[in-house]
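Report of the visiting student (M.T.), summer placement. My assignment was to run the structure pipeline on a short list of targets and document each run. The first record concerns Ribosomal protein uS12 methylthiotransferase RimO.
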Amino acid sequence: MTNPPDLRPDIARAALPETRRKGQPTIGMVSLGCPKALVDSERILTRLRAEGYGISPDYAGADAVIVNTCGFLDSAKAESLEAIGEALKENGRVIVTGCLGAEPEFITGAHPRVLAVTGPHQYETVLDAVHAAVPPAPDPFIDLLPPTGVKLTPRHYSYLKISEGCNHACRFCIIPSMRGKLQSRPAAAVLREAGRLVEAGVRELLVISQDTSAYGTDWKDRPDKAPIISLARDLGRLGAWVRLHYVYPYPFVSELVPLMAEGLVLPYLDVPFQHAHPDTLRRMARPAAAEKTLERIAEWRAICPDIAIRSTFIVGFPGETEEEFETLLDWLDEAQLDRVGCFKYENVAGARSNELPDHVPEEVKEERWHRFMERAQAISAAKLAAKVGRRIQVIVDEVDAEGATCRTTADAPEIDGNLFIDEGFETLSPGDIVEVEVDEAGEYDLWGRLVSR
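After the run finished, the structure tokens were exported:
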């Protein structure tokens, strides 16, 4: 599902209210792609800020612009090239990094004027390119770095990357070839970063990686079979909301759910199921056990009845028959997932699925996508309608003259729904966690009235 342009989580520009001192070199940043890439952008900006660079919120005020690209899908590549072209037109001095940077000839073929191209998470190379284009000029008496570093998200929530890379070999995905095998961060480093964020006022930690449930399984001498369990428990003790993204449905995920029932971790699982028919999953090189998946969902709900399950699916994968697609719709009816996104399959340069036979015509993909989303929308509307009259906790994201935009524990920022308060909101501020009573429901959003702060 494509979000409206003004709600895209994958397009971020640094907008920091600071005054440029005389002679200070200034860098702009355009960040495309997933939240993991956003974390990379924050790390780059933090390093640059520590070296005395100013961060410009627009092209005109920047001595050079970094474009952090996405290269997962052909449509994302096209968007990245468009962003590079826009930066070249508006500023003229552009450094490219990120996933598309793994194909430098592709970038320079379209935009030969870029100053440098680096690949994903190559922080030192990016800094070298910035130093060459815009030499640093730090002032140790003036240039101070916030304790959380430079953030591209609102102050009250932050993405927390716990690992890089992935050990899976899904035929439609090229992430392992771009970002390598799983490399988990030490738990102490993750907790130290999370602690600093919470101390600085962050109220929600969004845990991300390519495969969150696999965290720590790459360690030779790991203390537990599933280190994500102890990490989630420790994060939950910091006092902020903890939301888990990209959780692969291994059997031991059921050990995470009691932490949600206890209130240590938000009752929210973001699980990329992708499909339900065993033959389609087999062609995708995904585990072909949809029945067991339904059993696990039932088990999770038995442990934590309020758990919200989000997932994404692909329709029109090569070889997908009408029967296979109907199986997916039937599975969706049975699974009753709370939040669902869907993508029409498209070839990705370098993906093994490109070579599969029986590619599905575009018009069939489109028709199946609409049928899928219609079914998912009906499920969402029914689930939200059942919340009318309930009292729930929400976190405030934004307050303006018309009301407060909030999220429930079932809603991740930008990708899920919202809860709106349009009366008695004047004393609220972003980051507040308050209790509301739901009095209206739509297909994806809720409306409520403030009960208590």
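The chain has twelve helices and 19 strands. Confidence is low (pLDDT under 50) at residues 1-17. I thank the supervising group for their guidance throughout the placement.
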